Amino acid sequence: xxxxxxxxxxxxxxxxxxxxxxxxxxxxxxxxxxxxxxxxxxxxxxxxxxxxxxxxxxxxxxxxxxxxxxxxxxxxxxxxxxxxxxxxxxxxxxxxxxxxxxxxxxxxxxxxxxxxxxxxxxxxxxxxxxxxxxxxxxxxxxxxxxxxxxxxxxxxxxxxxxxxxxxxxxxxxxxxxxxxxxxxxxxxxxxxxxxxxxxxxxxxxxxxxxxxxxxxxxxxxxxxxxxxxxxxxxxxxxxxxxxxxxxxxxxxxxxxxxxxxxxxxxxxxxxxxxxxxxxxxxxxxxxxxxxxxxxx
Amino acid sequence: xxxxxxxxxxxxxxxxxxxxxxxxxxxxxxxxxxxxxxxxxxxxxxxxxxxxxxxxxxxxxxxxxxxxxxxxxxxxxxxxxxxxxxxxxxxxxxxxxxxxxxxxxxxxxxxxxxxxxxxxxxxxxxxxxxxxxxxxxxxxxxxxxxxxxxxxxxxxxxxxxxxxxxxxxxxxxxxxxxxxxxxxxxxxxxxxxxxxxxxxxxxxxxxxxxxxxxxxxxxxxxxxxxxxxxxxxxxxxxxxxxxxxxxxxxxxxxxxxxxxxxxxxxxxxxxxxxxxxxxxxxxxxxxxxxxxxxxxxxxxxxxxxxxxxxxxxxxxxxxxxxxxxxxxxxxxxxxxxxxxxxxxxxxxxxxxxxxxxxxxxxxxxxxxxxxxxxxxxxxxxxxxxxxxxxxxxxxxxxxxxxxxxxxxxxxxxxxxxxxxxxxx
Lengths: 296, 424
Hints:
The structure holds two protein chains of two kinds. Chain A is built from nine helices and no strands. By secondary structure, chain A is mainly α. Chain A has two domains: 117 residues; 178 residues. Chain A is flat. The C terminus of chain A is likely disordered. By secondary structure, chain B is an alpha/beta fold. Chain B has three domains: 174 residues, Glutamyl-tRNA reductase, N-terminal domain (Beta Polymerase, domain 2, 2-Layer Sandwich), CATH 3.30.460.30; 137 residues, NAD(P)-binding Rossmann-like Domain (Rossmann fold, 3-Layer(aba) Sandwich); 77 residues, no CATH class. In chain B, helix 12 links the parallel strand 8 and strand 9. The relative contact order of chain B is 0.09. At the A-B interface, helix 6, helix 7 and helix 9 of A face helix 8, strand 10 and helix 13 of B.
């Protein structure tokens, strides 16, 4: 069994998700009685392989699933893939996978381009590192879900404004549902992002007190873009709240959610393609190992 | 062993004649009883709807069921219609064409509203009535089971019956449900008492709407309509207040001027707290000024908007026709293959019986010559004989099955009868 699990690679589940996405795309052109079952089959197989792969990584390579940038992206992709499968099963006529699976594949691609080196760990800083990474993960997933809900709201609103009947087998969720998701996710993302940033500052303070850091790296690209994103999320949540009782409020929230998703995407691309010392081992000799942290 | 049918539909029979030819359930039952007496040994099913009257007959005997013109005469006599009137409009067919016709009828391909689902229930009812009247048998049994299977395949494998075609159903399922996730927490406001209001409300109720207000210029009419629809009557003089509270409006007044102008709507917009509003303006002339539809959060649909969506759905249904006919062709071939194979059953049974009889006789002779054989050895030998017979019979039986797909395998059956000296 262990031998079988160890042979699972990123390509295995990425390919399964890609095939499931391919089946979702065909909804645009033709109907099929077996497509739904086949699509769910591939998505489930991918999720199973993905889960086993993460367990195997946690058990053999690193101590925790958030221990490297690579694992962080894979865990974010896993959360979205699981959510996509659940939503597909509960709403078979809604093409959820068409929107979520490209993001899942994008995150897997980002993982492949990221460092697999575990963040330095020590018992003293591990707790704050996990908290920091978890909040950033929650923020990112909330931004993705909110952005997709916002995008779907705009597509559905466009169809309804053009007075077009929905395509068979391609029924978008209602505006009410998408609006609720987008507005909730904006708030969750802002709260999680703020908490993630705060826990990162505490983590740095702990590191400084233990002599692992000389100064807090405020000018590090990762810290700067995360800070910008968090500030934007707080502004977006405030604007969304301000417009919530106006007729155009739902459209504003949808657009804000999409902008947040675009900013997160830019931030991830910057992180993957750029250089940073964030989450890297300190340059100086250390007394205790540096902390676990998030990748975003 | 053959099938035949005669009948006419809205395509060929004028409505006046269709009305005269239509059978109530009781009349259909009487007609089937009469059929049983006049054509003993034949099976029959009578399908009578507002759009068609068709009589399907089948017989296992070699001479087959009565021909279509005789069935047409039977129908005319049953309904007291002169034969000359029906002769030119009723048509019939037999064999695969009759089977294909029934399958296409059951699947809604021959319906006035393409792909409408009620016809399946009507075909089922016709079959049940024939069962109760004692005019069914194995042939019609298999025929109607296959027809229902074909209809089910068309419904599940094509989108023929999925696109909505009526304005109220499109308004609720394709547009209102695109805005709202649920209707049980929404206020529905009916303005006016137009004929489409009640039907639209029926779809809204099915979707969960329970809080329904009715307003009308005439208070008495509003109360009457509210009682009939299980809603509450509102005050037309407080229309502004009702518009503020509403989430979904169905407007069907007979007013010649807009009931709600843009200027009036702008006044209430602020009081609505940004809640989305769906307006189904089913009145002609329109009750809501079209410019209201451009306001943020307002989804306004007129009869023309909904009519265009219905038309688009109708075109989509039409595009599904080739796929539906492919299924009907497949099911017809399959049914005819099975039917032809049925005609080979007596020959196969005779063939098997002959081989088994000969085998048993040879086994008896063998066991008498070899009395020292114990029961286990005898059983082994019996099984070997049985396997030998099955293997020897397999090629001719497989050939029969294969030939049945193309048509009745008369040539092979005759050859087998001659070769193995089988009776007719």
